[in-house]
What we know:
Blueprint: H1 3-14, H2 17-27, H3 33-41, H4 48-61, H5 67-74, H6 80-90, H7 96-103, H8 109-121, H9 126-142, H10 146-156, H11 162-167, H12 174-190, H13 194-221, H14 226-252, H15 255-263, H16 267-282, H17 287-309, H18 318-339, H19 354-365
Helix pairs in contact: 1-2, 2-4, 4-6, 5-6, 6-8, 7-8, 8-9, 8-10, 9-10, 10-12, 12-14, 13-14, 14-15, 14-16, 15-16, 16-18, 17-18, 18-19
Amino acid sequence: MDDETEELVERLKRGNLKERLLAAKALEKKRDPETFHALIEALKDDSMRVRNHCISALGKMRNPDAIPTLIKALKVHGTNSRAIWALGNIGDMQAVAPLVKLMKKDTKWTLIEALGQIGANNREDPRVEKEIIPILLFSAVKGTDEWSANKALAELGSPHAVPYFVKNLFDDDLEERDINRGTVIKLIENAGSLEKLSCIENKIQEGIATLKIEYPDLKKKCGWDVEEEMVDVKNDVECFKYEAAKKRAALTGDLAYFLETVKGLGGNYFLDAIIHLEKIVSNCSGINALELIEKNFDRNHKEWGKILGEWRTMPSSDLFLAKLRNSIAKKRDQLAQDKGILLTDKPKPPKPKKGIYQSARVIRNG
């Protein structure tokens, strides 16, 4: 312990009230064991303000050894709110049980926020799904502190919360709807495997089914235009389907499935999908995945061109297809150079004419 820390610890123990408060505030930046034990000892101080400052300092230190002491502080009137915050900031799962127990008596927003922080700090821990998500969903559904619960669930991004978010797309609060929509899209984008993506897609369907069941009652109770709201929900669900198709294509390289799914969602989605194919190609990480993309392209490019040619807004269906073919060839060369492989069996296709590039750029930027 250096001289400065030693002096601060001494002030925390024997200084007047102002000195003790300032010392507790300054010691939160220290991380040595002596400082930690001095703050724990100072929780016996006669002043509640000093005790609360020490609790905040322990929370900012994020040392799990402080948890038993902070749990005791939960039971003391005047320090319980600060202890809730500190336990959430430390983010250790051993604090979940006492916080949940406290929620049975008091549903402060700080409790919900603390549980959300702990869950976010332990995303891969299976106990989060079993112990934290159900409590947050209960708080959101029962309306004890819906806004805080929504925010915590959005931060956690649990697939098991998806039905709740989908159901809440039918809401007269536009901000809440945006949070719900954005959370589902974020979940889809962050899905790291086909198994996780399929789970999210199933949960979306579960939420839609619940909404359809409750629709007649909503129609009776709501004071706003229910039919118009349902159109917005339908648009959101189409957006989820598109994002899921994009993610599945990125995970598998199956462009045929991607475009087949998008075809049923309307022209704007398909046009965006053709442009997005270039991103899928550029993100491709292996020769095998790229070869699958090439096979899909060779097998389906005529059909894609036919679909694109049906739109009056498209000057030529060949523009995007030529650009995509060239992107595949470039990516293949790049992967070959990275691996030190010379691929002579797949000659690079001729570049589209300059006019094609310019037109494609205009369309993409327009």
